[in-house]
Design goal:
2 helices
Amino acid sequence: MVTAPLAKEHRPRADFAPQTWTLGYTTRMTIPDHLLDILCCPVSHEPLLPLSRNKLKNLNGAIASGDIQYVDGARIEGELSAALITRDGKVVYPIEDGIPVLLPERGIGTTQLTDPL
């Protein structure tokens, strides 16, 4: 019988320092660099970046007006507390309870905004 050696105790790398962003109005979100490096749009595979506070405020203003929809046509109910945007700025993905919602149908196309993000 062949047995695998026991795994070493998991220890954080000494050179690893997660990035912390303040997103939304009061929400703090910590996404480690190595995770942010692999997150991408499920459709275009563009890298994702945290949406800045000012851009999030502008997006929430447009959502409040009732003119913004998800890609699947569903109306967005309520403000977003945080979001990720594709590097090319075409799609925004909400973050709910600290978890990025990277479902293609839950993307928010930026072309429907009158003021670009």
